[in-house]
Specification:
Distance between the termini: 20 Å
Number of strands: 8
Number of helices: 9
Helix content: 40-55%
Shape: globular
Radius of gyration: 26 Å
Length: 320
């Protein structure tokens, strides 16, 4: 029989375990960057400018350099993708402000884009990675980023370092600048304390004391189920992270456009899984601490977590 432990403490233990499950981040690889850069040059010579731009951006992601970023901007221009070229030009100005060829290229592209696109300065607290309309921008995570987008309505999405997310609908106007601040949502505030009951006549109070008090709060299985779901999401996130690392290793061995796209998709999936696990865990913690009825005669059903080679197994038992 397991050692006695208060149920709120069990729930917190499960949530802490879920938060500690994280896939190892991929590190910069100079060799992979060189291969990606070479692949981009080959694609550009063949006239496949979109493929070339993605390869140059991947090279910059693996090992940042002004040469890779300038090549990506030129390839985006040749592909007719002015918004992406201007966004990369904004990054080039920030990263290499003292390099004359970089500042000239960036200034020329931004000047061309200004009357045609909307310029949005995004501030994140803490730093975040951006996606527009569900498509990742593949820019380094930062607290301040500038993106150029076509006029019209767009959904701006942010993923923060702690896997929390935030989104905002924006309306871009050609030739106009706008500012957006994105902050991850905080957990729901705890319920306010109930007001003290009004004094009652003595006889009525004695009658009420003789009656059993009605239970208040949610049943305990609600909090336990939420904790199990959070751990389950985290376990699937671990599997997704391992799968993402495998995709990266596959790309390093054979840097193709298809492998690059597959790796981006798996990385986004991993971020969503961990973000969901943390959100469910935070909500479960609030429910467990403030709104759950732990006292009573019912015996708490056991919840157990067992590690597996490719994730985790959560078991939940009870009776009716």
């Amino acid at each position: 029989m397991p050692t006695a432990m208060s149920l709120p403490a069990r729930t917190k233990t499960l949530l802490i375990s879920a938060a500690l499950l994280a896939a190892p981040a991929a590190r910069a690889d100079v060799s992979a960057a060189a291969r990606a850069f070479s692949d981009g040059q080959t694609a550009q010579l063949e006239g496949d400018y979109d493929h070339a731009a993605q390869s140059f951006e991947l090279a910059y992601s693996n090992a940042p350099s002004k040469e890779a970023l300038r090549s990506a901007i030129r390839a985006r221009q040749l592909a007719g993708q002015l918004a992406r070229a201007a966004t990369l030009a904004e990054l080039l100005l920030v990263k290499y402000p003292d390099d004359a060829p970089s500042t000239k290229l960036a200034s020329d592209v931004i000047a061309e884009a200004k009357p045609k696109l909307g310029r949005v300065t995004v501030t994140c607290a803490p730093r975040c990675s951006l996606a527009i309309g569900g498509r990742a921008m593949s820019l380094p995570a930062a607290e301040t980023q500038v993106v150029d987008i076509a006029a019209g309505r767009h959904t701006l999405e942010a993923t923060f370092d702690d896997a929390r997310t935030a989104s905002r609908d924006i309306a871009a106007v050609a030739g106009a600048d706008s500012d957006v601040r994105l902050v991850p949502a905080a957990p729901s505030a705890a319920a306010a304390p109930a007001a003290a009951p009004a004094p009652q006549p003595r006889a009525e109070a004695e009658v009420k004391r003789s009656e059993p008090a009605a239970p208040h709060g949610l049943p305990r299985f609600v909090a336990l189920t939420g904790a199990a779901i959070a751990v389950g999401l985290a376990g699937v996130g671990v599997w997704s992270g391992l799968d993402t690392n495998k995709a990266r290793d596959t790309y390093v061995k054979n840097p193709t456009h298809a492998a690059f796209t597959a790796g981006q998709s798996k990385q986004l999936r991993t971020n969503i899984l961990f973000g969901s696990a943390i959100a469910v865990g935070a909500a479960t913690a609030v429910v467990a601490v403030w709104w759950t009825r732990w006292s009573g005669k019912e015996t708490p059903p056991p919840v157990a977590l067992a590690p597996l080679t490719d994730g985790a197994l959560v078991t939940y038992g009870g009776h009716f």
